[in-house]
Amino acid sequence: MKNGNALHTFIEDAIALLGDIDVVAYFAEPLPYTVDEQIRGIVSRFTAVTPAERTQFQDALAPEHRSLFGIYGHRAATIAARQNDADWLRSGLTGFAIANYTIPEKRKVEVGMAVYLHVAQKLGLNPVDLFEETAVLAAPAIAAELLAFGRRPDVSLGKFGWQELKTPEGVKYKFSYG
User: Fold this and answer.
1) Measuring CA to CA, how many Å separate 152 from each of 34, 82, 108, 124, 141?
2) Could you report the per-residue pLDDT of 22-45, keeping only the tens digit for each?
3) Which of 74, 78, 103, 114 has its CB surrounded by the most CB atoms within 10 Å?
4) pLDDT given for residue 178 in this prediction
5) Peptide bond preceding 104: is omega within 30 degrees of 0, i.e. cis?
């Protein structure tokens, strides 16, 4: 974006959209849903701005807005698996990185990344490349996590507590505690 006004407008528009989304309702919506496309648009704009502008965007997000990107990320990975669409997966992993701009204490981000790595393999993508592409867009702490995780040879859904379920709508990823 060439000027501060465009960035300011982007941030204001994104926050306004995110502020209108009910987290619980969004989580329960069928895939794909209108909000998925709207957040995908935000993610797309986020990837097009400079690193300094990405930091400004991230700093403007409230925790509740950030959590929507986490939900979006996994929804996008599921859409990617159902539609065999790598662009949805890239967008979802970027959403995951936005959600984890600041990694909260005790959060095990690798648990969430297992789904992205699994879907990447399912789509025939090289996970190292996918995670490296996304790391370039991420804050330093989550970038380091992405780079390390994308290279792990020992990742399976089950090992990280996930199951891939077959449903009438297509695959679904479910996390199982313990």
Assistant:
1) 34, 24, 15, 16, 17
2) 999 999 999 999 999 999 999 999
3) 78
4) 58
5) no
